[in-house]
Amino acid sequence: MLQQLFAYLLGIMVTFPLLVTLLLYYLFKKSTGNKKYAVHASMQYSACFYLLSFFVIVDQTFGSSYIGWTIVILLTLLLFFIIIQWKLIGDIIFKRVWQLFLRTIFFLFFIINFLIIIIALLLKLVS
């Protein structure tokens, strides 16, 4: 019973990552009272749900998975952020790099999710 509830909850969170973002924003805003912190924290914590949602939508739409390519691209992006911080500041503060990386993933996959949903709907309408 508890495993099914957890599976359904996780499925809803992956299917509707925007709801997760809004819920996290509301929770962080109520607990801290700081809107800026709430926006940043909700972006960082919901980034993984946008990434998982992207994988599921691409797999269901195109019938193939691009997890390997996506991981390589994301690791390259993380390496790019590390090199930029090293060149600009000199010291690598991994917490700062990780926050920037998660926020970038959020923005990137937020846009990609909407585009891939539109493409998936168009493909379903055409076929």
Structure characterization notes:
By secondary structure, this protein is mainly alpha-helical. The chain has one domain. Helices cover 89% and strands 0% of the residues. Helix 2 packs antiparallel against helix 3, helix 3 (35-62) crosses helix 5 (94-126) and helix 4 runs antiparallel to helix 5 (94-126). The chain starts with a helix and ends with a helix. InterPro entries: DUF3397. Pfam families: DUF3397 (PF11877). The chain crosses the membrane at residues 6-28, 37-58, 64-88, 100-123. It comes from Natronobacillus azotifigens.
Could you give a quick summary of the protein structure above?
Keywords: Membrane, Transmembrane, Transmembrane helix. The protein is mainly α and 127 residues long. 89% of the residues lie in helices and 0% in strands.
Query: How many distinct beta strands?
Result: 0
Contiguous runs where pLDDT drops below 50 for at least 5 residues = none
**How much helix, percentage-wise, in residues?**
over 70%
Number of domains: 1
Amount of beta strand: under 5%
Mean pLDDT value? 91
Structural class: mainly alpha
Largest sheet features: none
Protein name: DUF3397 family protein
Transmembrane segments: 6-28, 37-58, 64-88, 100-123
Keywords: Membrane, Transmembrane, Transmembrane helix
InterPro entries: DUF3397
